[in-house]
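can u do me a favor
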């Protein structure tokens, strides 16, 4: 019974645009993630057919306690799946209507002149992107060398540090590399599933898309800082911030959704995060003048958005025709602008990251441009990672200082990142950033706003270092 309840809950969250299919399923807490994911995806594929059958049989009218999403998953498993897996009241309820449901399906196939169930699905054209499996090493619990050694012992072949996105496209199933931009990120073949791997279940690795790692990485608060994660759940970015802070300082995490906050608590516990303080509160209602937040200098704001950049979201089944309507985008942009304005109102704030998993200009460049028109005398837009291939739109002069990510250009989900920094003259941080040379850090990370060396940043957080180091060879270009 729990399987169907969880699946129905995920369908409801998708309708409310609360996240992607994968994120919602993996944060559901269900013991069999693969089973739940398969049921949700297949129910989505057959959703219009299921709604037709449920409507024709008047199932919801006959069974007043039955809700649409629960009915969908039950009817799917009865008619298209491997049969109902649960016992008890759900099975007894749906089996009463078994004959009528099956005969309705048969008539529908005759009406549409198809023989196979699959032919009932009206597929929509969609680009099939296969993104690599990104694995962020949790430096609160381990280090890169130990994780690399672990996978090598598991018969994976480590190819060293990739030099560009092309190398990530051609990984074989048992090959992996270090990411060319993020020092704590490993990259595997897209079909590698590590959700049941001991390193994942123990919190030593975090399965997180590369683009989603950019906000915390770019904010890069110094160890011991006071930081706010404004819209924190489900918690991957929060755990990343804690790793950068080495669990020192204070990390305030806010989210309005009680269930998502509970999921985040579980994730942070598994990741070994101890420097956080969670609050079930709307960030917009947080009092910026409260003495508790007087030391906050760094804020990460990743607010609710359309999610239009998420690749594996089954958009062709989950999005209605006006999911990107002008009215909806305007409402989202208004909220995002208000949240970013509030972030900039904290009296000691020096740096704010604004990010979305949207590809819509209205939620990205337009929001930042409007903010600069209001706060341009106090905050400037930082030119992030000049070597990054995908830039912000040039809809305003500073637009290309922002970052965009896309499946085609960066092999990630669609994403947007901007960083606003308080203008206090040429402070030490800015001097360090502008004088930072390629020679000091042998990665494109030299383009990042932070002025810490790669060796300096993770080492403080890791357990006692190993004496044996793994040599990272460069991946050779294929000809």
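np, heres the sequence
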């Amino acid at each position: 019974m729990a399987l169907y309840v969880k699946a129905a809950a995920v369908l409801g969250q998708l309708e409310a645009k609360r996240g992607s299919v994968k994120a919602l399923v993996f944060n559901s807490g269900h013991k069999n993630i693969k089973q739940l994911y398969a049921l949700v995806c297949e129910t989505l594929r057959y959703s219009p057919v299921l709604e037709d059958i449920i409507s024709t049989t008047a199932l919801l009218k006959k069974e007043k306690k039955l809700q649409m999403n629960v009915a969908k998953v039950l009817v799917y498993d009865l008619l298209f799946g491997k049969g109902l897996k649960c016992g008890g009241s759900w099975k007894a309820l749906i089996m009463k209507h078994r004959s009528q449901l099956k005969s309705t399906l048969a008539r529908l196939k005759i009406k549409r002149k198809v023989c196979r169930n699959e032919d009932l699905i009206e597929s929509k054209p969609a680009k099939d992107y296969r993104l690599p499996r990104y694995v962020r090493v949790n430096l609160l619990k381990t280090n890169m060398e130990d994780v690399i050694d672990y996978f090598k012992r598991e018969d994976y072949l480590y190819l060293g540090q990739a030099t560009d996105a092309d190398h990530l496209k051609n990984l074989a199933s048992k090959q992996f590399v270090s990411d060319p931009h993020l020092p704590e990120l490993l990259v595997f073949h897209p079909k590698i599933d590590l959700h049941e791997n001991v390193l994942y279940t123990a919190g030593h690795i975090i399965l997180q898309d590369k683009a989603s790692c950019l906000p915390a990485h770019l904010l890069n608060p110094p160890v011991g800082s006071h930081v706010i994660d404004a819209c924190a759940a489900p918690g991957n970015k929060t755990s990343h911030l804690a790793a950068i802070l080495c669990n020192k300082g204070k990390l305030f995490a806010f989210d309005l959704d009680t269930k998502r906050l509970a999921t985040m608590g579980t994730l942070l516990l598994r990741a070994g995060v101890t420097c956080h303080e969670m609050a079930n509160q709307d960030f917009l209602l947080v009092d910026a003048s409260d003495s508790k937040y007087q030391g906050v200098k760094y804020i990460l704001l990743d607010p609710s958005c359309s999610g239009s950049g998420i690749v594996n979201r089954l958009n062709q089944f989950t999005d209605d025709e006006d999911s990107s309507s002008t009215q909806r985008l305007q409402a989202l942009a208004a909220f995002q602008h208000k949240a970013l304005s509030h972030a900039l109102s904290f009296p000691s704030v020096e740096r704010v990251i604004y990010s979305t998993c949207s590809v819509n200009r209205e939620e990205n460049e337009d929001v930042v441009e409007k903010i600069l028109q209001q706060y341009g005398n106090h905050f400037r837009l930082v030119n992030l990672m000049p070597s990054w291939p995908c830039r912000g739109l040039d809809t305003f002069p500073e637009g290309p200082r922002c970052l965009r990510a896309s499946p085609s250009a960066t092999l990630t989900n669609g994403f947007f990142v901007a960083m606003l920094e308080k203008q206090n003259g040429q402070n030490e941080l800015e001097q360090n950033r502008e004088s930072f040379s390629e020679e000091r850090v042998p990665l494109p990370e030299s383009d990042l706003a932070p002025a810490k060396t790669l060796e300096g940043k993770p080492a403080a957080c890791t357990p006692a270092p190993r004496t044996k180091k793994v040599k990272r060879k460069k991946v050779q270009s294929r000809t």
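Residues 326-344 form the longest helix (19 residues). hope that helps!!
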